[in-house]
Design brief:
The chain is of the alpha/beta class. It has one domain: TIM Barrel (Alpha-Beta Barrel), CATH 3.20.20.70. It contains 7 helices and 9 strands, in the order αβββαβαββαβαβαβα. A 9-stranded mixed sheet has the order 3-1-2-4-5-6-7-8-9. α4 links the parallel β6 and β7. The longest helix has 14 residues. The radius of gyration is 17 Å and the shape is globular. This is 7-carboxy-7-deazaguanine synthase. It holds the Pfam family Radical_SAM. It catalyses: 6-carboxy-5,6,7,8-tetrahydropterin + H(+) = 7-carboxy-7-carbaguanine + NH4(+). Catalyzes the complex heterocyclic radical-mediated conversion of 6-carboxy-5,6,7,8-tetrahydropterin (CPH4) to 7-carboxy-7-deazaguanine (CDG), a step common to the biosynthetic pathways of all 7-deazapurine-containing compounds.
Length: 209
């Protein structure tokens, strides 16, 4: 990457854009609603079950002017979800400023592994064991989404739930490849621990992005 471009990326005037698309939110609190998704490249959290591993290497995704990303999003929706990769690898300040200055609602899906930047209307925290969230994000997360891949993930979910605010909505979501195995265990767990809700990747059932 050219040094001049790298400097713009470092301050958030450009971002490594993997893809952007208008679709239906498939997960969590806002499932079933229309939103514009911005997927930012770059992630070193490294979940072995990640279904977008092609997002990990930021160098594979072209640095794109943040102003252009904002303009593209607002052609479709005033609800914008920023995801990754791990979007907080980069400074989200200018992206959210641009979106909110034009009346958009800003949502982020993050592992919380990096300091929170940007101005967000909704924060979905999806913590990972391999690189834990910063202390800062627990108190401001609107929803906690814990991925259930094996039985030990229930204990991890409870550990994470103890750190968020009382107003944070708690979700358990089966990892897609083991959903048939884990959903019955999740149902039983939620019935015994009703503070939790089940989240499914409904966009995959609907066969949409």
């Amino acid at each position: 990457m050219q040094e001049s471009v790298q400097k713009l990326v470092n301050i958030g005037e450009m971002l490594p854009l993997m893809e952007e698309f208008y679709t239906i939110q498939g997960e969590g609190y806002h499932k079933g609603t229309a939103a514009y998704f911005i997927r930012i490249g770059g992630c070193d959290v490294g979940c072995h079950w990640c279904d977008v591993k092609e997002s990990w290497n930021a160098d594979l995704h072209p640095p794109t002017l943040t102003e252009k990303i904002v303009d593209n999003a607002l052609k479709y929706s005033n609800v914008v979800v920023v995801t990754g990769g791990e979007p907080l690898t980069w400074d989200m300040t200018l992206l959210t400023q641009g979106l909110k200055s034009k009346g958009a609602q800003t949502h982020i899906e993050t592992s919380g592994a990096y300091p929170l930047t940007g101005d967000w209307d909704w924060i979905c925290l999806s913590p990972k064991k391999v690189k834990r969230p910063t202390k800062q994000i627990y108190g401001v997360a609107n929803e906690l989404k814990c991925i259930i891949y094996n039985k030990s993930d229930f204990a991890f979910a409870e550990e994470q739930a103890a750190k968020v605010s009382e107003d944070c909505i708690l979700y358990l979501q089966p990892e897609w490849s083991v959903r048939d195995k884990m959903i019955p265990l999740m149902v039983d767990f939620v019935m015994k621990n009703p503070k939790w809700r089940v989240s499914l990747q409904t966009h995959k059932y609907l066969n949409i992005p």
